[in-house]
Specification:
Length: 80
């Protein structure tokens, strides 16, 4: 549990590398505050329930301009 009594939610980093937004096929960022996977391009936040990402656009929350987003995930570079 977190110091303020909330249960901390985590996503396996290896799983995060494999997941992509079902609409844009782009990368997702983990928002530990809300327990959501964020698609910046689609402006959607996919919930994670009981450790399981719910990757259905119909279940996603639309992100507004007022939402504070987690930092963008690092880009993997290819061969030079």
């Amino acid at each position: 549990m977190a110091a303020d009594g909330r249960e901390e939610k985590k996503v396996d980093p290896k799983l995060l590398e494999l997941l992509a937004c079902p609409l844009t096929k782009g990368p997702l960022a983990w928002d530990p505050e809300r327990g959501e996977l964020i698609s910046r391009v689609a402006k959607l936040a996919y919930p994670v329930r009981d450790g399981i990402p719910i990757m259905l656009p119909s279940e996603a929350r639309t992100i507004s301009a007022d939402d504070v987003l987690p930092p963008a995930p690092p880009r993997l570079s290819g061969p030079s």
